[in-house]
Amino acid sequence: MRHAPLPPDALDDIDRRIINALQDGFPLTPRPFADAGAELGLAEDDLIARIARLRDIGAITRFGPFFDAAAMGGDFCLCAMAVPAERFEAVAEAVNARREVAHNYERDHRLNMWFVLAVEKPDDIARIAKEIEAETGIAVLTFPKLAEFYIGFRVSA
Amino acid sequence: MRIDETDRRLIAETQAGLPLVPEPYAEIGRRLGIAEAAVRERLAALQARGIVRRIAIAPNHYALGMVANGMSVWDVADDAVARLGPEVGALPFVSHCYLRPRALPDWPYNLFAMVHGESRAEVEEKRGEIARLLGAACRGSDILYSTRILKKTGMRLAKNGR
């Protein structure tokens, strides 16, 4: 996944309008690209081709439905580990291999690996954290959400 | 899980993204053996229940120039955090803001606020704004910059059963 900025000329004004507009939502209609395109002044096939390109160059990470595990009866949990530098790549591989790991970031701290578990049954958080501890020999700290004060940030492209 | 088997298959089929074809819901319906209208009705129902948060594009912060992404963390007095947390969350540059348990003695921080900017200097300035807002209720803070994305797939269900 891309971690560096795109060259300044990678996106034109139309690309930026697409990113800005489609962060908020996409129609649930039989021809959604035609309908979303009409709002943007773009033909259906042009919008499809541009979204495909934005995905291919890494300007967007995903396009589709975003799910809330908690609303499904499951749970999310932020977890952190202090991984010795010489083992970092191998531990990252072991952690990422688990389907339940939705995101994983390297951060500049003694606790240098931060990942999110997304599970279908709340009990699975503790079970998977313990399995990762057993597999790696490194403690997994769990930071479950006690309250959420805001989610709704938009990136202006 | 409070969804039926068809919803589960629908989620599994779309969790990597919508097909980029003129009739994406019809295409999903063909893969699942259900009608196009049923796909849209089920997605709308899942959205009404909050299981689908939205159907949208997820921009890549880094690709778009927001290369400094810091998880700011704060040790805020327990009797003040319920009042101050929403104020931090309301700041325009904070993308996520959560109350989480401390992990003493290693980790004294209970308020987490993600701050994004085009440089670390910009993020540090924003971090200063949070510090001023929290004032004396804050007993310590740190910021953890991401240096690498190791994985970013979003939630994935098993395709079959639990």
From TrEMBL, chain A:
Entry-linked Pfam families: AsnC_trans_reg2 (PF17805), NirdL-like_HTH (PF22451)
Reactions listed under catalytic activity: siroheme + 2 H(+) = 12,18-didecarboxysiroheme + 2 CO2
Occurrences of domain Siroheme decarboxylase AsnC-like ligand binding (ranges): 77-149
InterPro entries, sorted: AsnC_trans_reg2, HTH-Siroheme_Decarb, NirdL-like_HTH, Tscrpt_reg_AsnC-like, WH-like_DNA-bd_sf, WH_DNA-bd_sf
EC top class named in words: lyase
UniProt KW keywords: DNA-binding, Lyase
SMART domains (UniProt xref): HTH_ASNC
EC number: 4.1.1.111
Pathway: Porphyrin-containing compound metabolism
Top-level lineage group: Bacteria
Gene Ontology molecular-function annotations: DNA binding
Residues covered by the Siroheme decarboxylase NirL-like HTH domain: 15-60
Similarity comment: Belongs to the Ahb/Nir family.
Name the UniProt record assigns to this protein: siroheme decarboxylase
Automatic annotation (TrEMBL), chain B:
Pathway: Porphyrin-containing compound metabolism
UniProt KW DNA-binding keyword: yes
SUPFAM superfamilies in UniProt: Winged helix' DNA-binding domain
EC class of the enzyme, as a word: lyase
EC number(s) on file: 4.1.1.111
Siroheme decarboxylase NirL-like HTH domain ranges (all copies): 7-53
Source taxon at top rank: Bacteria
Residues covered by the Siroheme decarboxylase AsnC-like ligand binding domain: 64-151
Catalyzed reactions: siroheme + 2 H(+) = 12,18-didecarboxysiroheme + 2 CO2
Gene Ontology terms for molecular function: DNA binding
Keywords: DNA-binding, Lyase
Keyword presence, Lyase: yes
Similarity comment: family membership: Belongs to the Ahb/Nir family.
Record-linked PANTHER family: SIROHEME DECARBOXYLASE NIRL SUBUNIT, TRANSCRIPTIONAL REGULATOR, ASNC FAMILY
Name recorded for this polypeptide: siroheme decarboxylase
Organism expressing this protein natively: Rhodobium gokarnense
Lineage: Bacteria, Pseudomonadati, Pseudomonadota, Alphaproteobacteria, Hyphomicrobiales
